[in-house]
Design goal:
Low-confidence stretches: none
Order of helices and strands: HHHH
Shape: rod-shaped
CATH topology: Four Helix Bundle (Hemerythrin (Met), subunit A)
Largest sheet: none
Helix content: over 70%
Mean pLDDT: 80
Number of strands: 0
Oligomer: single chain
CATH class: Mainly Alpha
CATH architecture: Up-down Bundle
Amino acid sequence: MTQPAATIIASCIALSAALLAFIGVIVNNWNQNRMERDRAKRETAERRRLERIELFVEVLADIDQVQTIFVYSANFGKRGNWPMKEYDDTVPTKLLIEAVRKALTTSFKLQLLGFPERSADVAAFTKVVHDEFRTLPSEKGVEGTADAVTRMNNARDQVADGLRSEIPSVEREREHEPSA
């Protein structure tokens, strides 16, 4: 074999090796970018899932706060036994209104995150609270308050059951995420 032929063959081999290395770098970069996109999608989906579950817990906490303030208002504030009566007898009402506002805010968050039925459940609970609070003080006394709390418990249970029914759909989102 002559030197020019050997040079041509060696240059073809070197060119082929360089081309294979270049293709390897491109494929490696493509795989890394795809893995990074998949990881970012998984992290985003997990963050959204955790936000939703955190919102569910926040909704239940807000509803419990409304119910607790209602009971205190019914038992103390409306009978004149509120500890701060000498300062301001509207404290129970103001606290209840603020708690209901907070519950409605979380209801709007539910609506924005795609849970309109659960938002309607929270709105129904706040309507029960509103209707019951309007009837205080009750001639039935403590028994009337117990009936009101029972109606609120039923509305709260409806919210809790609805939120509980949404958790599998949130968990299914996790199952459909791209795997690593």
